[in-house]
Amino acid sequence: MPRRPVNVHSAYHAHVYFDADTVDQARALCEEAGRRFKVAVGRVHEKNVGPHPRWSCQLAFSAAEFERLVPWLEAHRNGLDILVHGLSGDALRDHTEYAYWLGQDWPLDLEALR
Question: InterPro entries, from UniProt (predicted)?
Answer without folding.
Answer: DOPA-like_sf, DOPA_dioxygen
